Amino acid sequence: MPDYPQLDWEQMYSQGVAPWNDPAPWPPLEGLVIENAAPGSKILEIGCGYGSDAVSLDRIGYKVFATDLSETAIARAQETWAHSGVEFRVEDALNHADETRYDLVYDKGVMLNFANIAERQRFAGSLRARLTPDGRWITVLGNVDNLNRDETGPDKRGYPRLSLLETVQAVEPDFEILSVTQEQFGSLADNSFMAWTVVSRPRRLPIEQVLRELPARRQPD
Question: What pTM, to 2 d.p., does this model score?
Answer without folding.
Answer: 0.88
